[in-house]
Amino acid sequence: MAQPQGQGHAHGAPATPAAPPAAQPGPRPRLPAPRDAYVYIGWPQDGQVISGTRFKVWFGTRNFGVAPAGVIKANTGHHHIIIDAPLPPLDQPIPNDRNHLHFGLGQTETMLDLSPGTHTLQLLMGDADHVPHDPPVMSKRITVTVRPGKPQAVAAGQAQ
Ligand SMILES: [Cu+2]
What tens digit of pLDDT does each residue of 22-64 get? Predict the structure, then answer.
């Protein structure tokens, strides 16, 4: 029985510590999304003229779920609204600034304050780490015109 001796029993420092290879730097692969998943802006609509600079926007999803940031769950993500900006790079976290708003709690609506004039809005889903899925789940970009003035009457919730 010619068993090798001493391996793992030597005194002192182990000869070859089994260090795992260094983790790959950079982002992990993007999470997949079903091809039929999409998001849309429920309101306002493309071309809408909005009275009042503060208004509600709501988001819809089809074949895709909403989960808060930090939660890794298949076929879910959280909303981002891109205001007056082109799509960001799709292989890295979505920027977080006044043109890229995150809804990391899983919100599906928000109030926007925009200056009078023309603005573009687009939704883009991000995963737990704010990275778009592959393929990206995003709405079409819409254009709205904001007019100064009183906010539009909100019909919902009004007493008769
Ligand atoms: Cu995000």
Answer: 555 565 789 999 999 999 999 999 999 999 999 999 999 999 9
Q: Distance, CA 81 to ligand 1 centroid (Å)?
A: 10
Q: Please give all residues whose CB falls under 5 A of ion ligand 1, grouped by chain where several chains appear.
A: 102, 126, 130
pTM for this prediction: 0.78
> Hey, where are the domains in the chain?
38-147
CA 142 – CA 130 distance, rounded (Å): 22
Question: Can you tell me which residue has the tokens 């960001």?
Answer: 88
Question: What is 38-147's CATH number, 2.130.10.10, 2.60.40.10, 3.40.50.2300, 2.40.50.200?
Answer: 2.60.40.10
